[in-house]
């Protein structure tokens, strides 16, 4: 148990901020909730994929960081102008080669689909603030836990990148050898930069 504790602690000291690829930054306090969203560039059926390199999930209470080699997502964003502020629906999310200090963990998305929403009108630089709601992911390995809540970030048309870097995620259902490094009620932050294929264009107004 001492060796396992040391391994986790080492990660806590060196971990970075899980998911540098879905990309939504929190909007300003004066954000105006869009009444319509226009999508272009998706496949004829509205389907798209997104990939991110080195996404990370950091426990803000203990400093422990789960790092993955990559992450992927599949969803639907129909071309055209749609009322409301939902831009897309995410039907599948995966994470590959995840670990804490070399100790492997698996991450599995549940309670799908998750909704990708615009939370402010698109600015002059083609950047739209937004969030992903309904997030629910199961972590399993040396111990198990559930992470749920909302992530926030921005989508940039020029790079067709969704950058996730903030939000309101909470840990629950902790069991196994977590050794106090992941606890029920802990706040966690996911960071990732997801690049979409095809190159989606999003305009919220």
Q: What fraction, in percent, of the residue positions are helical?
A: under 10%
| Contiguous helical run count | 1
Unreliable segments of 5+ consecutive residues: 1-29
State the secondary-structure class.
mainly beta
- Overall geometry: elongated
C-alpha-based Rg, rounded:
17 Å
Strand content: over 45%
**Alpha-carbon distance between the two ends:** 54 Å
The average pLDDT is 88
Order of helices and strands: HEEEEEEEEEEEEEEEE
Q: Which strands sit side by side, in order, in the main sheet?
A: 3-6-8-11-12-13-14-15
Strand element count: 16
Main sheet: strands, sense, barrel:
8 strands, antiparallel, barrel
Word description of this protein:
Helix content is 6%, strand content 57%. A hairpin with an 8-residue loop joins strand 11 and strand 12 (127-140). It has 1 helix and 16 strands. The longest helix has 13 residues, at 2-14. The chain is mainly beta. The strands form 2 sheets. It has an 8-stranded antiparallel β-barrel. Strands 7-2-16 form a 3-stranded antiparallel β-sheet, with no helix packed on it. It is elongated, with a radius of gyration of 17 Å.
């Amino acid at each position: 148990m001492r060796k396992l504790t040391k391994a986790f602690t080492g990660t806590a000291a060196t971990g970075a901020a899980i998911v540098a690829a879905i990309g939504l930054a929190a909007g300003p306090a004066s954000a105006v909730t869009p009444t319509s969203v226009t999508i272009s560039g998706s496949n004829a059926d509205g389907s798209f994929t997104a990939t991110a390199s080195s996404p990370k999930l950091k426990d803000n209470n203990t400093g422990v960081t789960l790092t993955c080699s990559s992450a992927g997502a599949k969803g639907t964003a129909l071309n055209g102008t749609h009322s409301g502020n939902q831009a897309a629906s995410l039907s599948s999310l995966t994470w590959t080669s995840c670990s804490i200090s070399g100790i492997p963990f698996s991450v599995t998305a549940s309670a799908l689909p998750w909704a990708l929403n615009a939370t402010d009108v698109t600015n002059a630089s083609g950047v739209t603030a937004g969030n992903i709601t309904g997030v629910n992911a199961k972590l399993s390995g040396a111990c198990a836990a559930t992470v749920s809540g909302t992530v926030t970030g921005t989508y940039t048309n020029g790079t067709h990148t969704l950058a996730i870097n903030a939000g309101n995620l909470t840990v629950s259902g902790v069991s196994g050898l977590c050794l106090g490094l992941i606890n029920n009620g802990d706040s966690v932050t996911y960071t990732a930069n997801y690049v979409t294929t095809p190159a989606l264009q999003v305009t919220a107004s």
